[in-house]
Amino acid sequence: MSAEVAQSGPAKPVYIWSLTLRDLILIALVAALCILAKMVLRIPIHVPGHSGVLWVALFVICRGLVDKRGAGILLGGVAGVLAQFMGFGDVGPLEWTKWLAAGIVLEVLTLVIPGDLRSFPKAIIVGAALHLGKLAALTLAGVILQVPFALLFLGLGYSATTHVAFGALGGFLGALGLRELRKIPALDAQARGR
Amino acid sequence: MPAAPSRGGRTARLTGLAAVLVIAAVLAAWGLQARYADGAGSSKDDPAPSYSVAFRQGGTILKSYDLAALRALPQSRVVIDGKEQTGPLLATLLEDAGAGSYDSVLVKGAGLRDKGSLTLTPDQVRQRVQIDFSDRGTVKVCGPDLYHAEWVRDVLTIDVR
Q1: Helices (H) and strands (E) in chain B, counts
Q2: Which domains are seen in chain A, by residue range?
Q3: What does R_g of chain B's alpha carbons equal in angstroms?
Q4: Using the beta-carbon criterion (under 8 Å), do B154 and A161 form an inter-chain contact?
C-alpha cells in the first residue's frame, strides 16, 4: 500500500548529476550549434540581437529535451566556454558571462513557471527573458570593465526592445521545434528521462 | 475556506509576472539610455560625456571627434563580407588631426565586444583602414586587409606614437 502511494505521488525532481551520456552529448552539440549559428549566420538586417532568434530557439529545445534541473545552467556554461575559447578571437574577456546568464535565466524560469517548454506562452516569455538576461550580463560586464556609462547605455533601450522581440520569436520557434521533435518516440523518451 | 488555485491559474499568474518583469527591465533600459544620452542626467559638476573619439599624440589630446565631426570628413566606402562599411579613412583622420610623423597608431575601444585594442604601422594605416559608423551610434575601426578579429568596436581613443 505504502509503496503504491509513493509511486503515485509527485514526481521526484531529477538534477543534472543524473545526466546520461546522451544528455551530455546533446547539451554539448546544442551549445556548439548556438555558437556556430551566432558566428556564421550573419543576417544583414542591422538590428541588435537578431541572431538570438536561432540560438534562443536552440536553448529552449535543448532544455525541453533534457528536462533535468540545472541543465539550462550547464548549457549556458558550455556555450560560454565555447564562445570564449573557440579561437574566433573577436570577443571580449567576459563573453562567457553572457551565455551563462542566459542559461541561468532559462533554468530559473523553466523551474518557476509550471508546465513544459512546449507551451507557447511559457516558451515565449522564457525566450524573451533569457535573451534580455544575456544583454544584462553584457551591460554588467561593461560596468565591471569600467566602460563609460554614456557609451554603455547608448542605444540600450532600443537594444533591449529588439532583444526581447527576437528572444520571444526564438522562444516561439523553440516551442514549435520541441513539439515536432517530441513526436519522435526516441526524443520524447529522452525528454521524459527514459 | 477559499479553494486552492488551479495549476492553470498559477501558470498564468507566474507567466504574467515574468512578462511584467521583462517589460519593467526594458523600461529601465530606456530610462538608463535617456538618463545618460548626450551627457544629460548626470550632475553639473561631473557631466557624462557624449560619445566622441579622442585623438592623442604624446599624451596630449590633439582633437576630439563626435559623430557629426566624423561625418563631416571625406567618406570612404568598402564592402567587407557583404556589408558596406562607410566612414572616413584613418589616414584622413590622422591628416585632419594634424598628426605629424609617427611609428605606430594605437586604436583603443571599450573592449566589451572584442579585444579592445589594435596597433597599426604606418604601412597598415595607408592600406584602407577606416572608420565605420555602427548601428549603436558608435564607430569601429575596420578594413578589408584586417582580420575580423582585429576590428575594434566602440572606439574611444586613437593614439599616435
Answers
A1: 4, 9
A2: 31-191 (1.10.1760)
A3: 23
A4: no
B36, B50 Cβ separation under 8 angstroms: no
ipTM of the complex: 0.83
CB contact under 8 A, B33 and A154: yes
pLDDT value at position A9?
52
Residue A110: closest C-alpha in chain B: B15
Interface test with A, best of B17, B20, B33 (most A CBs within 10 A): B33
Q: For A162-190, how does the pLDDT look when each residue is reduced to its tens digit (9 = 90+)?
A: 999 999 999 999 999 999 999 999 888 88
Q: How many Å apart are CA A113 and CA A119, to the nearest integer?
A: 11
CA-CA distance, A31 to A58, in Å (whole number)? 8
The answer to whether the CB of B38 falls within 8 A of the CB of B50 is yes
Average pLDDT over residues B7-31: 91
Mean pLDDT score of chain B: 84
Task: Indicate the Cα dihedral angle B29, A91, B135, A38, nearest 10°.
Answer: -90
B53-160 folds as Sulfite Oxidase; Chain A, domain 2 (3.90.420)
Separation CA B3–CA A138 (nearest Å): 44
Nearest to A33 by CA among A62, A5, A12: A62
What is the Cα–Cα distance from B148 to B114, expressed in whole angstroms?
Answer: 10
Residue ranges of domains in chain B? 1-50, 53-160
